Amino acid sequence: MADFQGKVALVTGASSGIGLATALLYARNGASVVVANRTEASGLETVSLIRKEGGEAAFCQTDISNPDQVKRLIDFSIKKYGRLDFACNNAGISGDLVPLADCTHENWNNVLNTNLSGIFYCMKYELPEIIKTKGAIVNITSIMGQLGMAYAAAYSAAKHGIIGLTKSAALEYAPMGVRINAVGPAFIKTPLLDVLGEDTLNHLAKQHPIGRLGTPEEVAEMVIWLSSEKASFATAGYYALDGGYMAQ
Fold first, then answer.
1. Which residues in the chain come in under a pLDDT of 50?
2. What are the catalytic residues?
3. Assigned fold of 8-247
């Protein structure tokens, strides 16, 4: 267990999957958690789950593709808790799965604005506060940040971009005591995969040498480790959490 007593963590996309598991785990380790999500009802449900376990949390409705809303989120966090120690920038969308020539301008812009520009906006406004606490940022990317994926050019391009953004920012802010890393999950059993049939899920599981899909809780454990002092020498890294997928 990490000792996050008296510290504050921000998690975007915290209503389900990786974001929910991460928000819960920050709270279980003692942090107060700012839950950011586009949908109010599901965000408040995450807050409720944290409070039922005896933790502290607050919700701020946020669309990370809107820089004004991201700034408001950070202002809310500081007004509510007075500091910001950790941020897990997790929110993202999959977009349409189509060949590149059939990808609409709207789909391209939606995916890039959320998955890449959204993380830029988050870091832009998080960093002035996290510098003060010498804290840590963890950006959630994907194995598709290192690999290509047919029919997902926009998604893969954005996830590649997150890794470059993470490394550049980490170099800039390491002298100020801030660590910034990226975690790249493979296929994780989250609601995003619920639309796939059982046969497809079984096929995906077999693509991982470990023989199964990952869980949100496993990703959350990596985020907590990277946030903690146990990872005090880790910055500018890309950490694949992929069950061996990329070693093939």
1. none
2. 155
3. Rossmann fold (3.40.50)
